[in-house]
């Protein structure tokens, strides 16, 4: 905590001395030399602390810190942002959001549900995440098996010059997950997990949401699936 409050920052021997003062005695020279060594270490450690803070927070927060020069200044701004909630707890929630990744073959519904819970915890702490930031967190948390749907999302963004909402992206991810389960001959997950994500609706509602809100993404996704299914069908004909 020393760098966040500067309570242990080395004190310059020149402080309190008249303007233009410089060390002359052996004691003063030794004190100044010690101070210069200690302040150099302090400044290096302060840079490390600022780097650690930068890694733990979202870009939208870090932008507010770019003009600041010390870890204490970082801390004061962030403390004001997070209100009465413990800074350490809030920063940890941001860290968890940034680190959470869906593994290949993992349960997308449970993954999305965890992301939403962390989002809600931050909102209740008085530090709500901007929807565009939450969209980016979801987008970058997905494995390569979702590249088809992510490519379709990027195509739609380029065509319409508009970023989908995080809710729309979550709907697409869950719909893609259900489709992959069907393609792999899998069965629906437990009822409790389905209920936990009931806000996104049934499979038919998901399709309606795709068709009504994101036609470009839906069309691209369906076209990719038709090509994949066609290739599989052709492969079966060759084998037979």
Can you give a write-up of this model?
With about 240 residues, this protein is mainly α. It has two domains: about 1-80, no CATH class; about 85-240, no CATH class. It contains twelve helices and no strands. The protein has helices at about 1-5, 25-55, 60, 70-80, 85-100, 110-125, 130-140, 145-160, 165-185, 190-195, 205-215, 215-240. Helix 7 (about 130-140) runs parallel beside helix 9 and helix 8 packs antiparallel against helix 12 (about 215-240). It is elongated and about 85 Å long.
End-to-end separation: 70 Å
Q: State the helicity in percent bands.
A: 55-70%
Q: Note the run of SSEs as H and E.
A: HHHHHHHHHHHH
Radius of gyration: 27 Å
Shape: elongated
The mean pLDDT is 78
Query: Number of DSSP helices?
Result: 12
Number of strands: 0
In total, how many domains does the architecture comprise? 2
Low-confidence spans: pLDDT under 50, at least 5 residues?
Answer: 188-220, 227-240
Largest sheet: none
- Proportion of residues in extended strands: under 5%
């Amino acid at each position: 905590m020393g760098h966040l409050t500067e309570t242990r920052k080395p004190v310059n021997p020149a402080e309190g001395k008249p303007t233009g003062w410089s060390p002359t005695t052996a004691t003063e020279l030794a004190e100044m030399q010690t101070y210069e060594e200690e302040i150099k270490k302090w400044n290096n450690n302060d840079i490390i602390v600022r780097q650690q803070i930068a890694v733990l927070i979202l870009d939208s927060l870090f932008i507010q810190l770019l003009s600041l020069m010390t870890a204490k200044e970082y801390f004061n701004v962030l403390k004001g942002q997070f209100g009465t909630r413990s800074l350490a707890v809030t920063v940890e929630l941001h860290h968890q959001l940034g680190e959470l990744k869906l593994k290949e073959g993992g349960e997308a519904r449970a993954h999305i549900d965890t992301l939403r819970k962390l989002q809600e915890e931050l909102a209740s702490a008085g530090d709500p995440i901007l929807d565009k930031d939450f969209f980016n967190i979801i987008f970058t948390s997905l494995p390569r098996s979702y590249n088809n749907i992510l490519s379709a999302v990027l195509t739609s963004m380029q065509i319409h010059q508009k970023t989908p909402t995080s809710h729309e992206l979550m709907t697409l991810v869950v719909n893609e997950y259900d489709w992959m389960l069907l393609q792999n001959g899998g069965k629906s997950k437990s009822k409790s997990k389905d209920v936990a994500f009931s806000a996104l609706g049934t499979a038919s509602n998901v399709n309606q949401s795709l068709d009504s809100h994101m036609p470009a993404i839906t069309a691209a996704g369906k076209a990719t699936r038709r090509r994949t299914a066609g290739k599989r069908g052709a492969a079966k004909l060759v084998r037979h």
